[in-house]
Amino acid sequence: VFAYNGVVIDTLIKEDIIDAVTKYEPRVLIKYSDIEIVKTVQVIHIFIQYTIKDTGEINSYNLEIKPEDNPSLIK
Fold this sequence. Notes:
By secondary structure, this protein is α+β, with helices and mostly antiparallel strands.
């Protein structure tokens, strides 16, 4: 993920997130536009906004991924 930069990778990441949330957390509604990905050389920030279906409450979740989180990414 750190080696590639572009719309295709961002689209695949967003699709994976939406698929996982839909499969494992059916109480939550998430759309493609609710996910923002910001990449730097050392960190990928993923900002996710989601809606709880029953209440309509909007929450957010922020994820930070670094190369050291996955040793196989370190060269």
